[in-house]
Amino acid sequence: MTSKLSLAVKLAYASPAFTLAVVGIPVYVYIPKFYTDVVGVHIGMLGFLLLAVRIFDAVTDPFLGYISDRTRTPFGRRRPYIALGSLALAVSLYLLFNPPEASPTFETWWFGICIFSLFFFWTVVVVPYESLGPELTFDYNERTGLFGMRDGAMLAGTLVAASSPMIVSQVLGLPQGAEGERIKFFWIAAVYGPMLIFCSWWCVLSIQERAREEHPSRQALLQGLRAVARNKPFLLLLGSYTIAAFGSNLPATLILYYVEYVLGSKLADFFLVLYFVTGIVFLPAWVMLSRRIGKKWAWIASMAINTGSFVGVFFLGPGDATIYGILVFFSGIGLGATIALPSAMQADVIDYDELLTGERREGQYIGLWSLAKKLSAALGVGLSLSLLSYAGYTPNVEQSETVRMTLRVLYALIPGMDNPLILGIATLVAFFANEPGASYRVKIFDRSGQMRAQSQPLDDWWSLAWTPTGGDVLFDRQAYDNLVAGALAHIDAHGQVTVADIRDRFDTSRKYALALLEHLDRVRITRRMGDAHVRGAAAAVGGGGQA
Predict the structure, then answer these.
(1) Statement: residue 215 has pLDDT above 60
(2) d(CA 248, CA 256)
(3) What is the pTM of this model?
(4) How many CB atoms lie within 10 A of CB 73?
């Protein structure tokens, strides 16, 4: 697959992210309060079902990733799941947003069945969709742009989703109360379901998957997962992202409760729009900043901004809506980075796995990523709603001081302490890493030793890797063996080999040719004589030359 992508391909790939956000935000933000305050499901039971479905959703992700990795159809590995799954997902969305008026027991069963169906088909679509992204290009900066456009579309969809309840209510002149809420969510589902299908099929029909994988994974599921677990850069990134996801899910679940019952405001929809508009506006700035200082440091900067914002929110109360809006603005500044940059770093460490193992398994990586993210979300949702129930939450009445303090702690204080924990991990890793502060340049070669991808920085925070050539150059193991064998063959044929000979023989740059020969001199496979190199003591004449 080419490194450079056309604008049409980028737009087609980004389009499902828009509608998935349009679908996802109502599920994550509006559905809990809709089912507790309008439909009448008990908040404790709702919390239990949301916890259970998130765990179910998390467990299914690695299996879907594994299955999509091994799927072979004339239409590719990923696209059939996106196309068919989007149809079932749209139906599940409609049923969830349009519960019948019945007894609380029936409503609880309806919610449970619909939410489990929706999350299952969400996985069927999202895991193959996210696995498709890293396969489209191997260029480091091109990926940042691709994921930036995808996540920009997601933010735009989030903005549409956040503003839709307010817009629908105003356009249709809906009354306050349960009747108006039911009509509002009927129209949201009726519009967004077909939109989801359209954008998913646009992506499927516009993007051509790789005809043949270069290094497909042939490992069994458990073997593949064990191999993934040995990728230290991925584990470090995954751990930090999991902590961040836990912190972000608490305010996402509780914002409607916090704004109404702590601030005493009816402007929750406005604050959501402000938050996401700010995120969209500042997203390009974070992408540009990441190219100058690295994705890791840009992400850390966004964490610092969010920490200050959430700590400030903890001290607010009735009448502080204006101050809250200012803090929401600053939190929105960091939003683009916290969404876009971890995904871009994830794609880089997937390449790193291929570098070391020769296998491509995007689906398993995406599956584990989703597993950790959703388990943290399950814990956040289950914990927050269960604690609200324990504190004595009662729908549609003025809440006790215990409930309001519980909302402050869960919505603001815990997320505010979350980011410093990640920053602490970053500091420890940077201090104890093999080469703290190193900036690797990764070069992936195909099996013939030819250049496949542009050199790309692997952010030093995640770099605990060995480098066979020293310095800042890494080679795929089999490609490295081929390069060594080729260098020795050239010596056998011509009596010596130079940097220029290696450069021309393997169609690479002087930088990589020089790194290879310097390494071979150090391990005594070759020996330098002036500007040329001959066989060294570690390579017998006519031998294969393995390091």
Answers:
(1) no
(2) 15
(3) 0.63
(4) 11
Using CA atoms of 202, 207, 211, 216 in order, give the dihedral in degrees to the nearest 10.
-90
Q: pLDDT at residue 465 above 60?
A: no
The rounded distance, in Å, linking the Cα atoms of 146 and 434 is 31
Q: Are 37 and 29 in contact (CB under 8 A)?
A: no
Which has more pLDDT, 255 or 440? 255
85: tokens are 């799954």
Q: How far apart are CA 182 and CA 166, in angstroms?
A: 13
Q: Domain 7-432: which CATH class?
A: mainly alpha
Alpha carbons 87 and 117: distance in angstroms, whole number: 12
Give CA 358 to chain center in angstroms: 23
CA-to-CA distance for 181 and 34, rounded, in angstroms? 8
pLDDT at 222 over 70: no
Tokens of 104: 């609380």
For residue 210, what pLDDT is reported?
62
If you write DSSP's letter for every residue of 475-517 in order, what string do you get?
Answer: --HHHHHHHHHHHHHHHHHHS-B-HHHHHHHTT--HHHHHHHH
Tell me which of 256 and 214 has the higher pLDDT.
256
pLDDT in tens, 390-414: 888 888 788 889 989 999 998 888 8
Asked if 203 and 129 count as a contact pair (C-beta separation under 8 A), the reply is: yes
Q: What is the DSSP letter of 461?
A: G
Please tell me the distance from the alpha carbon of residue 481 to that of residue 500, in angstroms, as a whole number.
19
* Domain 7-432 identical in fold to domain 456-535: no
- The Cα–Cα gap between 372 and 316 comes to 32
Spatial distance between the Cα atoms of 32 and 252, rounded to a whole number of angstroms: 11
Tell me which fold the domain 456-535 belongs to: Arc Repressor Mutant, subunit A (1.10.10)
> What's the mean per-residue pLDDT of the chain?
77
pLDDT digits (tens, 9 = 90+) for 49-65: 888 888 888 778 777 77
Cα distance between residue 267 and residue 269, in whole Å? 5
| The residue type at 380 | G
Q: Are 304 and 419 in contact (CB under 8 A)?
A: yes
SS3 content of the chain, % helix, strand, coil (to 5): 75, 5, 25
More confident site: 531 or 58: 531
How many CB atoms sit inside 10 A of residue 521's CB?
14
Domain ranges for the chain, please list them. Answer: 7-432, 456-535
How many residues does this entry show for the chain?
547
